[in-house]
């Protein structure tokens, strides 16, 4: 099952406000385009007012975007964060607030928003009979942790560390190197990862973890995709042999 996207057109004002609020809370970077122009401008949502139906944008960068905004040119906005992609157009400034650190743009809520949500990636399980060691390394901590892979998707994995980590692992902690070394797969894969799930079992003295891969280049992502397919084929082959 490949990772895909579910597309929706949102026109309900309350839903539109919630989408904009999500971008605001996550400090998402916003790309601004003026109609008929190829230049992209960067900004972010600084605040929003649900009752008035407006939101406030930071001054556009590069500075030529500010000149276009002053001239009243309509623009579109595109933003993406944590699997959520939002696009809307026909935006125009209602007001410009001059601050010491730059301009702030007041913009009306859009009437229609295109909203894409990535579906959860398929997770390929690792067979119990398969050797699937992982090594987790944080440059800050120094000593690497050893464990076993439980399952793998295109965007992350779950694994078990053979110890109770001290000092304890932290949610969103960054590990510069997570190395997957799967039996019968031709090469190991090393990728940076962000800790997303931590569960300790003091009786068994193990730590169950879930991570999200980050800063993945194209060639490494291709290797991860191939490894997911490899694990799927191995699981299917085992299921067929049992029939």
From TrEMBL:
Type III secretion system flagellar brake protein YcgR PilZN domain: residues covered: 9-113
One Pfam family named in its UniProt record: PilZN
InterPro entries noted in UniProt: PilZ_domain (IPR009875), Split_barrel_FMN-bd (IPR012349), T3SS_YcgR_PilZN (IPR009926)
Superkingdom, natural source: Bacteria
Signal peptide residue numbers: none
Keyword set includes Lipoprotein: no
Protein keywords: Bacterial flagellum, c-di-GMP, Cell projection, Cilium, Flagellum, Nucleotide-binding
Gene Ontology molecular function, alphabetical: cyclic-di-GMP binding
Domain PilZ, first and last residues per copy: 117-229
Name this protein carries in UniProt: C-di-GMP-binding flagellar brake protein YcgR, contains PilZNR and PilZ domains
Organism in which the protein naturally occurs: Marinospirillum celere
Upper lineage: Bacteria, Pseudomonadati, Pseudomonadota, Gammaproteobacteria, Oceanospirillales
């Amino acid at each position: 099952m490949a990772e895909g996207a579910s597309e929706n057109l949102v026109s309900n004002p309350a839903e539109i406000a919630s989408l904009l609020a999500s971008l605001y809370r996550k400090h998402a970077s916003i790309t601004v385009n003026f109609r008929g122009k190829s230049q992209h401008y960067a900004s972010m949502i600084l605040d929003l007012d649900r009752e008035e139906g407006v939101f406030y944008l930071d001054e556009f960068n590069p500075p030529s975007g500010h000149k276009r905004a002053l001239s009243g040119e309509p623009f579109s906005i595109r933003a993406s964060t944590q699997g959520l992609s939002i696009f809307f157009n026909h935006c125009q400034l209602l007001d410009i607030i001059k601050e010491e650190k730059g301009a702030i743009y007041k913009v009306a809520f859009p009437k229609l928003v295109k909203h894409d949500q990535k579906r959860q990636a398929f997770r390929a399980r690792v067979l119990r009979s398969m050797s699937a060691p992982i090594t987790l390394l944080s440059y800050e901590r120094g000593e690497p942790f050893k464990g076993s892979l439980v399952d793998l998707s295109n965007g992350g994995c779950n694994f078990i560390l053979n110890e109770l980590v001290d000092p304890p692992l932290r949610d969103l902690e960054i590990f510069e190197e997570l190395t997957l070394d799967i039996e019968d797969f031709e090469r190991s894969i090393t990728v940076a990862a962000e800790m997303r799930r931590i569960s300790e079992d003091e009786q068994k003295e193990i730590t169950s973890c879930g991570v999200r891969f980050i800063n993945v280049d194209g060639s490494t992502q291709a290797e991860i995709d191939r490894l997911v397919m490899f694990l799927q084929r191995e699981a299917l082959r085992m299921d067929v042999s049992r029939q």
